[in-house]
Amino acid sequence: MHAWAERVSRDWPAFHTRTRGGWRFGLADGITKRANCALVRDPGADVEEVTRFYRAYGLRPCAQVWPGEEEVDARLAEHGYAVVEPTLVLARELRERPRGPGATGISDSPTERWTELFSQTGVSADHAEGVVRILSRVDAVYGVHGDGDGRGCAVLDGESVAICAMVTARAARGRGVAGAVLADLLVRAYDRGARRAYLCVVADNEPALRLYRGAGFAEVSRYHNRVLAD
């Protein structure tokens, strides 16, 4: 399995995993592709295994493809799996304690406002509940900007921290809310022992890329999903 695939799947875990036929399958009630996809363990893995597995659970078959898995990628394409959401992995070192404005309230569990901000993403209540369930399976802290217009999460794993679930209210975008939340989460992560940070961002999300690159993050890997076409 690709090293970054292993890291990302550990920090955004499925509820259940199965390993067979050269794949590691994740299941999380269909909540997010990242937790409901097949990861390559064997370059010779049979694509039909992905189709059979997810069809059996009533889910759309999905595989996550990383650099070095081009042969598997080609077989997925031949079987009608289309590329969805090319994604970049960005990372930075935390050699010194970052500077944060202290504008973010940070807690060990999601507050009511943290959860309310799902409304800005257009997802269903069931999806929102599922994301909270995923994050409850890891060591995470939750940040909400002081004015309530932005939020984020930091998943802590020893000297590594994953930044995820960043949301800014539509009316507050462009005001520095997300940058403040990000900076404050990195400060808390550093204080908890993190010395490296990373995040995943959809490759065509230019506003998010500007924010993260401005905060010192740079591309270290990338992946895309292959989803079976209807």
TrEMBL record:
Which InterPro entries does the record match to this protein? Answer: Acyl_CoA_acyltransferase, GNAT_dom, Rv0428c-like_C
| Residue ranges constituting the N-acetyltransferase domain according to the UniProt record | 89-230
Annotated SUPFAM superfamilies? Acyl-CoA N-acyltransferases (Nat) (SSF55729)
* UniProt xrefs under Gene3D superfamilies: 3.40.630.30
- The protein depicted here goes by the name Ribosomal protein S18 acetylase RimI-like enzyme
Source species of the chain: Nocardiopsis terrae
